[in-house]
Amino acid sequence: MNIIGVDYSITSPAICINMGEKFYFLSHQKKYTDWIWKDKIFGYSIFKEMKVDTKHSTRKYDIISTWAIDIINRYKPCYCVLEGYSYGSINQSMSFNIAENTQALKQKIYKENIDMDIVPPSSCKKAFTGKGNATKFAMYVAFTEKTGIDLSKIFDTLNVDKNPISDLVDSYALCHYFINKDKNR
């Protein structure tokens, strides 16, 4: 049973396959073009595609959602778990962009007949760390403890609350939430 966790965003979406079996992330940074760590973490840059046509947000959302659905379809999941909106942490004008971007992916998942579960961020954080208002650093610590993977060493940075590290952590936490959701009640 393949479960896929998707921390979906406009700037740095991340996908976790089966509790950390594989990870994928998308970045606007050139350095992540075809970036791979131990055949487990795969980074892609859409820098070139975004430079071609960034005037039209619909085109951007299609590029990002196509990248995501192509990865999702490789694994033929039973469930795709997405993080719900965090209404308190975004300004009102950005919330429309985030909703439109996410809807592009949800529509593609729906057309592929894949079941979706939308998890509120606070529920995911509580299940993963014990605190519904956990910081990105607390999420990172829980990820490192649960997986034994130290992303700060892999990405050679101490900024564990930045992209793509925090996105990879969140995608894993979404898988963790879904697989353990009966225990979370």
Question: What does this 3D model show about the protein?
Answer:
There is one protein chain. The protein has 185 residues and is an alpha/beta fold. The chain has one domain (3-179): Ribonuclease H-like superfamily/Ribonuclease H (Nucleotidyltransferase, domain 5, 2-Layer Sandwich), CATH 3.30.420.10. It has seven helices and seven strands, in the order βββββααβαβαααα. Strands 4-5-3-2-1-6-7 form a seven-stranded mixed beta sheet, sandwiched between helices. It starts with a strand and ends in a 6-residue tail after the last helix.
Strand and helix layout:
Layout (H helix, E strand, L loop, with lengths): L2 E5 L6 E4 L4 E6 L7 E3 L3 E5 L1 H6 L4 H19 L3 E5 L8 H20 L3 E5 L1 H9 L6 H12 L3 H4 L10 H15 L6
Parallel strand pairs: 1-6, 3-5, 6-7
Antiparallel strand pairs: 1-2, 2-3, 4-5
Helix pairs in contact: 2-3, 4-7, 5-7
CATH topology: Nucleotidyltransferase, domain 5
| Number of helical stretches of at least 4 residues | 7
Mean pLDDT: 88
Spatially, the strands of the biggest sheet line up as 4-5-3-2-1-6-7
Q: What composes the largest sheet?
A: 7 strands, mixed
Query: How far is it from the N-terminal to the C-terminal residue, by CA?
Result: 22 Å
Content of β-strand? 15-25%
Listing every helix as H and every strand as E from the N terminus to the C terminus, the arrangement reads EEEEEHHEHEHHHH
- Number of discrete domains: 1
Q: How much helix, percentage-wise, in residues?
A: 40-55%
SS content category: alpha/beta
Q: Enumerate the spans where pLDDT stays under 50 for 5 or more consecutive residues.
A: none
CATH superfamily: Ribonuclease H-like superfamily/Ribonuclease H
Radius of gyration over C-alpha positions, nearest whole angstrom:
15 Å
What is the overall silhouette?
globular
Please identify, by name, the CATH architecture: 2-Layer Sandwich
**Secondary structure tally: strands:** 7
CATH hierarchy class name: Alpha Beta
